[in-house]
Structure to design on (278 residues):
């Protein structure tokens, strides 16, 4: 990690020249959820290919730009599109934007994603607030010589997702009259969707949903001392014992995520409104 510090500083300095404000929260908008960025007031939009050392987003439904501005009364930076291991980037590089947002001033990171529902009680369009995760990616962004200025060598991950934020998100969902689960997210590399045997395995080891993102960002956020809230939208139901399982497509995932976007939007705006009053 020792090589990251100058890259982080250069990227942060570039963004600060375009938007000199101090954000209090960072948001990573996943598949089908990028339209939340349209609600940001006085937005400054910066394409990832302009920012030094940022990768380029190639995933379906990811615009690939940083949007800086105010949302629900709080100064924020939002990633409209994220990066994945399956795009060929190393773990440290796909999480570099989290480090940059930390330098810019955030102390809260909100992450959203699309996922496959393994828990039989989950339905497409449901939102799961992540309580925990299982890293099956065979990759960790903290691998290598630790830079103590970025975080501790052995960060504790016994509670990676902030309990206070989880409870507040549940309360917002209840007030808004929609279902929000809490559960465990299993992260896999992708880009292929899981076989039925893999679905059975991941469910058996304790996962409620499975996806291809979020965990690297969460690990880095905890390493950097940030509070983290992660929201997973179930965009397809994994039913491995169905004799004729319905194939999953990327377009379906994006479309279902878009239909459920109002739920994630409601939670995010409620969280930010509360943060603005602190």
């Amino acid at each position: 990690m020792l090589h990251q510090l100058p890259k982080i500083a250069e990227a942060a300095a570039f963004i600060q020249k375009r938007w000199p404000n101090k954000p209090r929260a960072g948001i990573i908008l996943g598949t089908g959820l990028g339209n939340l960025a349209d609600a940001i007031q006085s937005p400054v939009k910066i394409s990832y290919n302009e920012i030094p050392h940022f990768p380029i987003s190639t995933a379906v439904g990811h615009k690939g730009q940083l949007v800086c501005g105010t949302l629900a009364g709080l100064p924020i930076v939002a990633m409209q599109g994220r990066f994945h291991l399956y795009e060929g980037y190393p773990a440290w590089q796909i999480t570099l934007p989290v480090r940059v947002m930390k330098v810019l001033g955030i102390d809260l990171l909100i992450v959203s994603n699309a996922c496959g529902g393994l828990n039989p009680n989950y339905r497409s369009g449901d939102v799961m607030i992540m309580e925990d995760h299982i890293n099956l990616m065979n990759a960790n962004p903290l691998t290598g010589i630790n830079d103590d200025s970025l975080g501790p060598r052995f960060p504790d991950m016994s509670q990676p997702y902030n309990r206070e934020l989880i409870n507040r998100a549940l309360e917002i969902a209840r007030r808004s009259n929609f279902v929000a689960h809490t559960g465990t997210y299993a992260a896999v590399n992708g880009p292929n969707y899981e076989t039925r045997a893999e679905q059975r395995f991941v469910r058996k080891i304790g996962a409620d949903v499975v996806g291809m993102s979020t965990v690297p960002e969460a690990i880095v956020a905890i390493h950097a001392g940030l509070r983290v809230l992660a929201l997973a939208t179930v965009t397809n139901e994994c039913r491995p014992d169905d004799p004729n399982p319905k194939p999953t497509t990327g377009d379906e995932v994006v479309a279902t995520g878009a239909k459920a976007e109002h739920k994630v939007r409601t939670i995010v705006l409620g969280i930010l409104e509360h943060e603005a009053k602190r």
Observations:
- The chain has one domain: 4-277.
- The mean pLDDT is 92.
